[in-house]
Design brief:
This protein has 625 residues and is of the alpha+beta class. It has helices at 15-22, 51-59, 66-74, 86-100, 148-162, 169-174, 180-183, 197-211, 215-231, 235-254, 305-316, 335-346, 358-396, 450-468, 487-499, 538-567, 579-589, 592-597, 600-604, 611-621; strands spanning 2-4, 31-36, 42-48, 77-82, 116-120, 128-131, 139-142, 264-273, 276-285, 288-295, 325-328, 351-353, 404-413, 416-426, 429-430, 436-439, 480-484, 506-511, 522-524. It is built from 20 helices and 19 strands.
């Protein structure tokens, strides 16, 4: 891979002339090109099978859309990276787009990982649970599911059908009697020996068959077992099996579409209207519908449907394993090339199809209908949001509707486990991927000092912004700060903003009014008297929603920190003791206190604890200094 940049002494050309001058710097190799403006910001990233041929198209003054002409007119320099193959160029292009977020490229805004169902394989009695992220734990993974809610609903029903445990290994080891899950018939209670390993293994096998799409065979087996139990007059067992069959039927009906001819595919449909796009993705696995999710990519200042869909696919599968088939509502330019790249990534064949008839076409039609309806709702919500932002600007005397609002709140209990929360909202509603939490670190803070906590949070926030984006070009600088609090909090934050030279950002304190009733909020601004909005003002409701979301996020973060602190033990501070060794020690001795009192020979007797680590543990709890 080689990189080419224009010589530093090149004439200050722009637009078509600049692009024409670059042609002598490149050859017919495949590669990636970047177009930059006069500030050095990347306007567009593209890939080409033949760099010289592709770039020469931009040098022509005719035949371009308005979007491309605007992009060309803003271009003052270009950069080139040559690659060995066009596939390599395609992968590099998507990586650069996700990293640089150019103005004229299509951008996928929501790119979180999707949850899976996992059956652990390191334990004699496997656990079934939800899993998100890298698949490092030993076990069988089934997914992806469209959302955590889809996984939770499926897990809930699977527990009724297959009675598999969902408790952690440490909780399993510590049980002396069945838990509530057994009482409500969602677990076979292997922890206390109420089911043999062989019978539990049969349940695990049935669950795997269901998750692999062989649910009919599972139902037939359960029906046969129910009939056998009934013939033997074991009516209680027959009733339990009947309930499991009903639960299994409920899972299948809740999944809606269950295509017989499509075993594994992502169904991807796009609908565009008024320069906005909605891409709907249905996940079909094991002949079952495991949910759907809608995406609203930025359309790069007016890209057409094929370009939007192709860019979406490239970025969507950049960090995800593609299925065996991808069914599209519209064709894309580099379909075969993308299929080749995804096949190399998955290390098996991946097909990209545009179905015209049959069951696959029906799946596309359903996804397309969802995309059309979702975009209509989104556009309606966006119009409402725009009116609210305009009303907010009028109410608070802003120069224009804010594009990015940051709302801050703190949460603690008498100063302990203190955290700060920041939520972000804009024209598209809440931007949850940009929420941030702050663990309050100030050792000199008085417990419960809300002013000091808010100062620390804002100090860290603006320090980072000034370091990472001093020119304010990334779009991560707020237009408006909403602070939970009154005059004191506003004064504390104003000091920080003055110190860091960012006093040009509007800031408003939101304080509960008389009797702390919602609807009686008072608003505080530096150098102005407090004021209130009409009780039925839509802008007031909007501000309340923003404040309540910040409060919810801060409290949730605080609770997570508190729960982690409750489960912490002195073993967490011992070098070399990770999660598995901690679990082994607690299982062997029963408690961290018992570990601290154990003798060296007892510590060496624990599975997984080496002689050297046993000595480290013993010395940690028996300081010889």
């Amino acid at each position: 891979m080689t990189e080419t940049t224009p010589p530093k002494d090149a004439a200050p050309l722009t637009g078509h002339a600049l692009i024409q001058s670059q042609l002598k710097l490149i050859d017919n190799s495949p590669g990636v090109y970047r177009m930059l403006d006069d500030q050095g910001r990347v306007l567009y990233v593209g890939k080409a099978r033949n760099l010289k041929k592709r770039v020469s198209n931009y040098a022509n003054t005719q035949g371009h859309s308005g979007r491309i002409l605007r992009m060309i007119s803003e271009t003052t320099s270009m950069m080139f990276l040559t690659t060995r193959t066009e596939t390599e160029a395609l992968l590099l292009e998507q990586n650069l787009i996700k990293q640089l977020k150019p103005k004229y490229n299509v951008l996928l805004r929501d790119d979180k990982s999707f949850p899976n169902i996992m059956l652990s394989k390191h334990h004699a009695f496997p656990q079934i649970k939800k899993h998100r992220g890298r698949k490092t734990e030993k076990g069988s993974y089934y997914g992806p599911f469209a959302s955590a809610g889809a996984v939770n609903r499926t897990l809930n029903q699977l527990q009724k059908v297959f009675l598999l445990r969902n408790c952690s290994d440490s909780m399993y080891e510590g049980r002396t009697r069945p838990c509530l899950q057994y009482q409500i018939k969602r677990c076979a209670a292997p922890c206390v020996g109420l089911i043999s390993q062989e019978d539990y293994g049969a349940l695990v096998k049935d669950a795997e068959q269901f998750l692999q799409g062989r649910s009919t065979k599972v139902q037939e087996t359960l029906a046969q077992e129910m009939q056998t139990a009934s013939d033997a007059m074991e009516f209680e067992r027959a009733a339990a099996l009947r309930d499991r069959i009903h639960a299994l039927t409920h899972v299948q009906s809740a999944q809606g579409i269950n295509p017989r001819g499509v075993a594994e595919a992502d169904v991807v449909a796009i609908h565009m209207d008024g320069g906005q796009a909605c891409v709907q993705v249905f996940f079909i696995r094991a002949h079952q519908n495991w949910g759907n999710k809608d995406f609203y990519p930025k359309t790069g200042a007016g890209a057409e449907t094929p370009e939007v869909l192709q860019a979406f696919l490239g970025q969507f599968y950049d960090s995800k394993t593609p299925p065996r088939q991808i069914l599209l509502s519209d064709d894309i330019e580099d379909r075969e090339l993308l299929a080749q790249a995804l096949s190399e990534k998955a290390e098996r064949k991946v097909e990209i199809l545009i179905p015209q008839r049959g069951e696959k076409a029906e799946l596309i039609a359903g996804a397309l209908r969802n995309a059309r309806e979702s975009l209509a709702r989104k556009m309606s919500e966006t119009a409402t949001q725009a009116r609210l932002l305009t009303g907010l600007a009028d109410a608070f005397g802003l120069e224009g509707p804010p594009q990015r609002i940051e709302v801050y709140d703190n949460s603690h209990i008498q100063g302990t486990n203190a955290v700060g929360g920041m939520i972000v909202a804009g024209a598209d509603g809440f931007l949850k991927s940009q929420y941030r939490k702050f663990n309050i670190k100030g050792d000199d803070l008085t417990p419960g000092d809300d002013f000091g906590m808010m100062k620390e949070v804002l100090t860290r926030r603006f320090k980072r912004l000034l370091k990472e984006d001093p020119d304010r070009t990334s779009g991560h600088w707020p237009d408006l700060l909403l602070i939970d609090g009154g005059a004191g909090q506003v004064s504390a934050v104003a000091e920080i903003m003055e110190e860091y030279g960012v006093s040009d950002i509007a800031m408003v304190g939101v304080a509960k009014g008389e009797d702390r009733d919602a609807g009686k909020e008072e608003f505080y601004r530096t150098g102005a008297r407090p004021f209130a909005l009409r009780h039925n003002d839509p802008v007031l409701y909007f501000v309340q929603r923003l404040r309540d979301e910040a409060h919810r996020f801060a409290i949730g973060t605080h609770r997570a920190k508190r729960s982690k602190a409750v489960s912490a033990t002195p073993l967490d501070d011992v070098p070399g003791v990770g999660a598995s060794r901690k679990r082994a020690l607690l299982s062997h001795f029963g408690s961290a206190k018992a570990v601290s009192r154990a003798g060296l020979s007892d510590l060496k007797a624990v599975d997984g604890i080496s002689d050297a680590l046993a000595e480290t543990l013993y010395d940690f709890f028996h300081d010889k200094s």
